[in-house]
């Protein structure tokens, strides 16, 4: 009889399961789980070893590491540790109150609480290994406390509650460690607004992203976090935002832009307006407002029973919030601190139970002193809530929220519309508005300007500059990141390094420093060669003459050369001193030139299109207007545009003003209501549309299979080579399904689809979104060298200036410096774009606003300056 293995499959990440299906090894996985299910009651070490032996080869082929395999085995075994039959307490009907948030009311077996992923936290692992103890995990907290193994059982019950409170699956996959000592027990409760953690290790589903790193965030500094796609920038922000890293001060309020808070507020009132949801996303402020409203109302009425009930309700809500925080800490912390957190959780659960019982069965008011006591307590709570609101500047909250929403592009109608009516893009903007509205000690922003138009980008840029607290931002918009960053955090090779300045300054100084070191090394090598030649000549002469004294001198010189050869000055230009500049044990008495190993340079190369046999423009629009059915106005009106072979054309403008409509009219997806669109009969057009990433992310196939299916004549070898030079190599191309690829990798696949046929006209709509700065530079270089025409629609100022207006690289020095930086393997064609050719073929930039297309004679800078002026006037 076939056993249902879905509970086991839920413990394995979906991307891994999809990979096994793509590799056609899923039947082996299914057979292994079926075999284990047949003997699920066996908890011996032999059964564990047998399951691991069956799963390891299948999971390894799917790209799972050794540690993650062990964790998946543990999760599969955990499914069988708790009996499926519910207890009598579980069968009892639950009260429709909030009491279900306490672990006393939770009745979830390990099979349902185990995270559906390959990563299991340390506390979970210790708990899952003890089968007999796990059976008692569903009992009440009171019973747990009486048992001899209360800590382990409590960890299990707490873990179950955490997964209910935090539905984000990514958080369950993250494991974070840092250097701790007994002093850290007190350090987490300090009033410091800074973070300084050493030996930070961060893993995601068993993959190490940080190793022995130093995490340092100073108060009031605006940081830009940079690193290539896939290095773990978003995971690091998540770990900080969720306070997963041990040693983070508990008193710090850290905000990480997420839709979770907004979703919670929207669920409470599905018809709530966008403005109301954004305001209510600040949970602390919302609770203080509600307490003030409730308490002031009952105190004005003066009815004793109402005052008593209001006080009990406030106590219940505060106890619930305290329980939620205590539960999170009990799961995150381990060791002595974890034991203290679990004890604190027991206290919080008792307090919540007492507050709930008091709210359900309020004590009678029998004497005047009792009524006075309730009134005094209500007045005390009211003063606390009012003090909180004064700190939040609650009177101006609504005005500030409206200002932020308007700045992010919300119209008055959309601000007052129900939050449930917003699309995903607009909900992301509302989430950003919530983060900008709330006061916080540290604000974490992950790609905050993705899909924002330039007015909204500049608004966010100016708003962040005015924030007095610490801000950490991840963004691939170079000019945006340059303008908001005081310092950089560089995530590279599992380490964190820091630089005072923005990205452009960092790249320029890094390049100049490398060039200086290469020249230093070259001079040292030449000098050493000359000295070694003189020593060799002296040795030859001494050997020929048989002079032993000269031979001893030669050996002495050689020994001194080996021991003292190196830099004669330190990094500051001062004379080198051994005890100051080279502390510790070393093989020589001089420091050498330390050349840091560079990341592999990202390079794209696109084959040029064949020339058209007949001359003429590729696309010509004459007085084109487009109106959608049911609309009273044209979306675009009277548009005239001509694109010739090899020309560069950029289109910028606010969102919703017709840019996508224009592109659809050019490629023939829309028929103009007025005017004509003429296309060259022999010209080929390739388009990367905005929705390309969303379409690719839903496909279960691999990048290589998808590409060869679309271009069957490409051949496996050519397809692999083309995808490989775009960064989709090896298992990323032929094993991992598209559902498991990052946004940057999907953009590269979309580019491959567009550029493989070498179209005469390439249309790119927001193509730089999700790409890191190195990849954007590679795309810029490839498109500058491409002989076909390019039509770019983008809000990325850097991309428009470099690709369309052919602006020089802000980091580039003279040509020989570029060669010195990258080495002799750089061809002339790769060194950069020819300046003379750029001057002749500089492209045109157009502004599409309110449906009208207008050329910007001053280029992208003209549009940027006009938007800045308009924002300053407002």
Automatic annotation (TrEMBL):
<dbReference type="GO" id="GO:0005524">
    <property type="term" value="F:ATP binding"/>
</dbReference>
<feature type="domain" description="ABC transporter">
    <location>
        <begin position="195"/>
        <end position="518"/>
    </location>
</feature>
<dbReference type="InterPro" id="IPR003593">
    <property type="entry name" value="AAA+_ATPase"/>
</dbReference>
<protein>
    <submittedName>
        <fullName>Related to positive effector protein GCN20</fullName>
    </submittedName>
</protein>
<dbReference type="InterPro" id="IPR017871">
    <property type="entry name" value="ABC_transporter-like_CS"/>
</dbReference>
<dbReference type="GO" id="GO:0016887">
    <property type="term" value="F:ATP hydrolysis activity"/>
</dbReference>
<feature type="compositionally biased region" description="Low complexity">
    <location>
        <begin position="97"/>
        <end position="121"/>
    </location>
</feature>
<keyword id="KW-0677">Repeat</keyword>
<feature type="region of interest" description="Disordered">
    <location>
        <begin position="86"/>
        <end position="151"/>
    </location>
</feature>
<feature type="domain" description="ABC transporter">
    <location>
        <begin position="619"/>
        <end position="848"/>
    </location>
</feature>
<keyword id="KW-0547">Nucleotide-binding</keyword>
<dbReference type="InterPro" id="IPR050611">
    <property type="entry name" value="ABCF"/>
</dbReference>
<keyword id="KW-0175">Coiled coil</keyword>
<feature type="coiled-coil region">
    <location>
        <begin position="309"/>
        <end position="336"/>
    </location>
</feature>
<feature type="compositionally biased region" description="Basic and acidic residues">
    <location>
        <begin position="122"/>
        <end position="138"/>
    </location>
</feature>
<dbReference type="Pfam" id="PF00005">
    <property type="entry name" value="ABC_tran"/>
</dbReference>
<dbReference type="InterPro" id="IPR003439">
    <property type="entry name" value="ABC_transporter-like_ATP-bd"/>
</dbReference>
<keyword id="KW-0067">ATP-binding</keyword>
<dbReference type="InterPro" id="IPR027417">
    <property type="entry name" value="P-loop_NTPase"/>
</dbReference>
């Amino acid at each position: 009889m076939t056993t249902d293995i879905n509970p086991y499959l839920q413990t394995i990440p979906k991307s891994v399961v999809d990979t096994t299906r793509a590799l056609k090894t899923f039947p082996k996985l299914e057979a292994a789980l079926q075999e284990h299910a047949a003997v699920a009651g066996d908890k011996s070490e032999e059964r564990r070893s047998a399951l691991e032996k069956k799963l390891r080869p299948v999971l390894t082929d799917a790209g799972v590491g050794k540690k993650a395999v062990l964790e998946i085995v543990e999760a599969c075994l955990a499914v069988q540790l708790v009996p499926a039959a519910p207890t009598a307490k579980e069968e009892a009907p639950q009260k429709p109150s909030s009491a279900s948030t306490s672990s006393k009311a939770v009745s979830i077996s390990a099979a349902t609480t185990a995270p559906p992923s390959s990563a299991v936290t340390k506390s979970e692992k210790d708990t899952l290994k003890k089968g007999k103890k796990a059976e008692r995990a569903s009992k009440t907290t009171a019973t747990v406390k009486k048992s001899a193994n209360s800590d382990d059982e409590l960890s299990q019950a707490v873990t179950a509650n955490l997964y209910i409170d935090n539905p984000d699956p990514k958080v369950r996959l993250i494991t974070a460690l840092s250097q701790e000592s007994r002093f850290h027990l007190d350090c987490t409760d300090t009033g410091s607004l800074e973070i300084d953690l050493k030996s930070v290790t961060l893993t995601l589903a068993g993959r190490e992203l940080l190793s022995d790193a130093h995490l340092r965030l100073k108060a009031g500094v605006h940081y830009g976090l940079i690193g290539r796609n896939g290095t773990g920038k978003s995971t690091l922000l998540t770990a900080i935002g969720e306070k997963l890293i041990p040693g983070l001060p508990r008193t710090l309020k850290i905000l990480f832009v997420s839709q979770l808070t907004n979703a919670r507020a929207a669920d409470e009132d599905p018809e709530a307006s966008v403005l109301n949801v954004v305001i209510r996303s600040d949970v602390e402020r919302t609770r203080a407002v509600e307490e003030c409203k409730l308490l002031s109302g009952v105190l004005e009425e003066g009815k004793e029973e109402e005052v008593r009930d209001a006080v009990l309700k406030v106590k219940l809500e505060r106890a619930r919030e305290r329980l939620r925080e205590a539960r999170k800490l009990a799961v995150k912390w381990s060791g002595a601190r974890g034991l203290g957190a679990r004890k604190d959780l027991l206290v919080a659960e008792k307090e919540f139970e007492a507050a709930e019982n008091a709210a359900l069965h309020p004590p009678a008011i029998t004497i005047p002193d009792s009524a006075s006591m309730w009134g005094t307590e209500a007045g005390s709570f009211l003063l606390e809530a009012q003090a909180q609101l004064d700190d939040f500047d609650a009177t101006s909250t609504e005005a500030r929220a409206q200002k932020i929403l308007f700045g992010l592009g919300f119209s008055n109608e959309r601000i007052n519309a129900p939050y449930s009516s917003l699309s995903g893009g607009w909900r992301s903007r509302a989430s950003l508005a919530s983060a900008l509205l709330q006061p916080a000690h540290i604000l974490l922003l992950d790609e905050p300007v993705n899909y924002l138009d330039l007015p909204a980008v500049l608004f966010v840029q100016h708003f962040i500059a005015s924030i007095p607290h610490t801000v950490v931002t991840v963004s691939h918009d170079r000019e945006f990141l340059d303008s908001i960053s005081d310092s950089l955090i560089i995530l590279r090779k599992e380490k964190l390094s820091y630089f005072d300045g923005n990205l452009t300054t960092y790249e320029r100084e890094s390049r100049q420093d490398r060039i200086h070191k290469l020249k230093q090394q070259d001079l040292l090598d030449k000098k050493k060669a000359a000295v070694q030649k003189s020593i060799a000549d002296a040795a030859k002469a001494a050997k020929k003459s048989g002079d032993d004294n000269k031979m001893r001198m030669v050996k002495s010189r050689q020994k001194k050369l080996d021991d003292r050869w190196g830099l004669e000055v330190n990094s500051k230009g001062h004379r080198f001193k051994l005890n100051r500049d080279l502390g510790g044990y070393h093989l020589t008495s001089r420091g050498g030139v330390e050349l840091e190993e560079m990341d592999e340079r990202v390079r794209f190369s696109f084959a040029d299109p064949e020339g058209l046999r007949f001359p003429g423009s590729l696309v010509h629009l004459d007085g084109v207007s487009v109106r959608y059915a049911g609309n009273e106005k044209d979306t675009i009106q009277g548009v005239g545009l001509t694109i010739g072979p090899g020309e560069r054309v950029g289109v910028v403008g606010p969102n919703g003003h017709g840019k996508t409509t224009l592109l659809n009219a050019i490629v023939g997806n829309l028929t103009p209501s007025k005017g004509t669109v003429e296309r060259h009969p022999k010209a080929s057009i390739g388009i990367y549309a905005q929705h390309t990433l969303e379409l690719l992310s839903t496909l279960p196939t691999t990048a290589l299979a998808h590409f060869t299916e679309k271009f069957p004549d490409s051949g496996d070898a050519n397809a692999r080579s083309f995808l490989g030079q775009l960064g989709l190599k090896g298992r990323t191309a032929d094993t991992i399904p598209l559902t498991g690829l990052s946004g940057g990798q999907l953009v590269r696949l979309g580019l491959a689809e567009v550029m493989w046929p070498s179209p005469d006209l390439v249309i790119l709509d927001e193509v730089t979104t999700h790409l890191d700065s190195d990849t954007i530079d590679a795309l810029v270089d490839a498109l500058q060298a491409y002989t076909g025409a390019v039509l770019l629609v983008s809000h990325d100022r850097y991309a428009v200036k470099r690709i369309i207006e052919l602006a020089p690289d802000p980091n580039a020095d003279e040509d020989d410096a570029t060669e010195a930086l990258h080495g002799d393997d750089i061809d002339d064609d790769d060194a950069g774009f020819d300046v003379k050719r750029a001057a002749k073929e500089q492209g045109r930039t157009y502004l599409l606003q309110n449906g009208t297309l207008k050329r910007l004679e001053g280029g992208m800078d003209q549009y940027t300056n006009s938007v800045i002026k308009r924002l300053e006037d407002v």
